[in-house]
Amino acid sequence: MLYRVIDAAELPALVAAFMERYEVIAPVRSGRSFAFEAVGSFDEIVLDYPTTITSPKKYVLPPRETLFRFDAEANEVTDYVEAVTPRVIFGVHACDINALNSLDRVFRDARYPDPYYEARRDATMVVGISCTPSEGCFCHLMDADEARTGYDLFLQDIGGRYLVSIGSVEAANVLEGACNPREATDEDRIAFRRATRRRQASFNPEIPDIQEVPMLMDAFHSDPFWEELGGRCLSCTACSSVCPTCYCFDIRDTLDPDGVHGRRERTWDACTSPQFAVVAGGHNFRADGRNRVRHRMYHKLNGFLATHDRNLCVGCGRCVYACKADISPIEVLRFFERKGAENAD
């Protein structure tokens, strides 16, 4: 990995250089919170944001997208062509970069690559930035507090300057043309280590660090805890709406007003929706909240790991704030902590 250092005062020039060739998406203030939106100048960007309401996922996996158009009368299908906008997502935290890496594992699987996702992902550059954890962050427990891959540039704030990790030639060329990058000195490296220690010390110590979570998910699969947790679920699907790694979708055919032509669409779906597991004939494999919530947590903390060697949950904390019933992976970790204390007694 190649590292360079730039002054903080050079960031506006870097963003302006990206804007010459790309649409720039960045965190901006949205009411009392923050969101990733298209920006027109560096002045709109807020880089010291805690966590955005939703993740950058929507720019590579839109909530609704057309797959193809059809003519029901002629029984013909026409490929739907949509211009893919080259863009840079600027100011992405490590947890969200790791989330995009997980989506890549699903939609860029060499056996079944998704052309719609790939087209957007290939046209997207990612510029990451360091952060200070907020109260609901637990990315360090999910091994997602550092981004080792998946970015074109990563900016680590080391006080008035940034240590820049370079992940692609294209981004390196933009950086070189817009800024005055220089070799990192011993002083820069010391400042980086201090910044890293400050971030690690900033995590909420009340969120328990539980070892062997996947094994515990299996061991307590039938515990009454899931009845209590699932009984709270409102089936509002807010958790999946804000989650950076939820990728379940539904396929819908939508007719035009003429009743003949239409389009097939892919839309976000959620395993906590009561209709999610309904199959032909009307049977519902997960008809109650207990089974739906348990399934969601199992996939986040065990099932995906078994296939892709990493947790699907990246500990961003968005679901902690979005759920009005206090359902989140943190509650599962606290449950395992209580079970450990009971066994110790």
What does this structure look like?
The chain is of the alpha/beta class. The protein has eleven helices and eleven strands. It has a seven-stranded mixed sheet, sandwiched between helices. Strands 5-4-11-10 form a four-stranded antiparallel sheet, with no helix packed on it. Helix 7 (225-232) crosses helix 9. The protein is flat.
Characteristic key phrases:
single chain, 345 residues, alpha/beta, 2 domains, 7-stranded mixed β-sheet, 4-stranded antiparallel β-sheet, 11 strands, 34% helix
Most strands sheet: 7 strands, mixed
- Count the beta strands: 11
Please state the CA-atom Rg, rounded to the nearest Å. Answer: 22 Å
Helix count from the secondary structure assignment: 11
Order of helices and strands: EHEEEEEHHEEEHHHHHEEHHH
* First-residue to last-residue Cα separation: 48 Å
How big a fraction of the residues is strand?
Answer: 15-25%
> If you average the pLDDT, what whole number results?
95
Number of spatially distinct domains: 2
List segments where confidence is low: pLDDT < 50 over at least 5 consecutive residues.
none
Give the fraction of residues assigned to helices.
25-40%
Looking across the biggest beta sheet, what order are the strands in?
1-9-8-7-6-2-3
What is the SS-derived class?
alpha/beta
Topology (elements, then pairings):
Elements: E1 2-7, H1 11-19, E2 23-30, E3 33-38, E4 64-71, E5 76-79, E6 87-92, H2 94-107, H3 115-122, E7 124-129, E8 153-157, E9 161-166, H4 169-178, H5 186-201, H6 213-219, H7 225-232, H8 238-242, E10 249-255, E11 261-268, H9 289-308, H10 318-322, H11 329-344
Parallel strand pairs: 2-6, 6-7, 7-8
Antiparallel strand pairs: 1-9, 2-3, 4-5, 4-11, 8-9, 10-11
Helix pairs in contact: 1-4, 6-9, 7-9
